[in-house]
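ok trying this again, last paste got cut off
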Amino acid sequence: MIAKDVFMVFQIQKKALARMEAGSRKYGSFSPSSDQRDLYSELEDELLDVMNYAAMQILKLRAMRERALTTDNSGNTLRPPRNQDP
């Protein structure tokens, strides 16, 4: 199991590296001493996007779970949906 987990982490790291390399091709190499971008603001914007994506994914998962709890494999209703907090 650990080998599979390590492989999955490695795949994520490879994707991050590929994005970094693509950014270097598009924007040039990063130089901490001369970079003029406001990385704090860029990071804040990206984190706010992540928060929104996470909230949307949670809502999708809740809807999927509710459908699974209220319908059978043929789509027949088993019980009325319960109310969920927003």
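PB: full thing came through this time. Residues 33 and 44 are 21 Å apart (CA to CA).
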